Structure formats: C-alpha cells, structure tokens
Amino acid sequence: MTVETKSGTRLDTYDRFVEFVGKVCVTNPGQRSALRRGLGRPPEQAITVHATVARWLPERPSPATEWAYYAVASMIALQPSGGRNGSTDDDQETEQTGEQTAPEASTPGNPRRRASLGTAMALAVFRTDSQQRAIGQETAEKRLHLLTRQDLFGVHQRLPGVVRHLQTLGVPIDWAQLLNDLGEWTPHRRDQIAKRWLQDFYRSLPENEKE
C-alpha cells in the first residue's frame, strides 16, 4: 500500500519498535536467542517472544497485527548485526563507500516511498557483494508469487525462509514497512499488499532484467 499521512504515525511507531528489537539483539544475547525460538510460530506458541514484544502491542490488536509484531521481532533476531531496517555489517560498509543499497519503489507523484518486500526481492536478483549467488529472477518471481497467494498462516510459514535468504545475501529489509504490510494481511487487504509487492518487484529490477 502507499504510505499516507494517516499511516505515517503508525510507521513511526514501527520504526521505534524495530530500533528497540535491534538494541535488544545486540545487548542481550539470551533474549535474542529467545526471539529466534519464536520464528514461524503464532503468538500463542511463541512464549519466548512475549517479554520483548508484549509491551509494544496496541490494545486488542487484530490477529494479523499481533502476529506481525512477533514475526518481525523473530526475523530481526536472525540477522548478524541486529541493525535497524535490516542493515548488516555489509550494508553499513556499502553506505560508507557510497555503493548501491536497497532501491526504493518509485511511482508517479510518489518517487521515494519506502521499500517493500518486493523491492528487496528485486535487489536479491542482482546482489553480487556476498559470498552466495544472487537469486535468479525466475526463482525470485516464483517465491514472491507463492507468498502473495497465502493466507495469514501460510505467509508466516513461508516468509522466514525467504527473509533468511535475503539476509544471507546482505539485502536490506525495511522491517517497519514489512510489519505494516503483515499487519494488514487480512482477507480484505492482503490483495492490495500483494499487488504492491509484485509491482515493486518488477519496477525495481535492473533494466537488463526487464527486457
């Protein structure tokens, strides 16, 4: 979805949550391990994640919003540095040298909106600054299309594997935007989120991959 003023405040809250979880992962190895043990589990089963996440939940969150908080916290704990917005040591070095980092989706009238998972998947297609091979475009397309067809349970079962691969490649992930998108993964909204992921993927591919 396009981030509007109304959701800007929500994204600010999500940014603070992401920053908090990143600090927890850096300063408290035990709590970081506890977050990792919650990976892929619904909130009812992710008992080791409550201590980090519970205080951040809104009152009476929807099932999608609650699970989004738990999932994002657990996935942040997987990354090497626990940094904000998915930055790893490789990404920090890239920023210092001025080389390309994650592309942002562009649309007429909104040229610099925040990057979605689709944008990150596009970057993985041509990521070359890691020891592992980049994801082929066909593979990335299949994984993304499969994700976008899932219900709430299915997307949370399949997403950790995709994110782990992106992290291995050093691809930055906008965790706050991902939290926002997962929080709206409802029967009435998920098609809009899925459309944005797919559109961002194809918009963000390098020019030679689009031809």
UniProtKB/TrEMBL annotation:
Region annotation Disordered: where it falls in the sequence: 80-114
Highest taxon listed in the record's lineage: Bacteria
UniProt xrefs under Pfam families: CRISPR_Cse2
Amino acid composition bias (Polar residues), ranges on this chain: 97-109
Transmembrane segments: none
Protein name: Type I-E CRISPR-associated protein Cse2/CasB
Species of provenance: Micromonospora sonneratiae
Gene name in the database record: casB
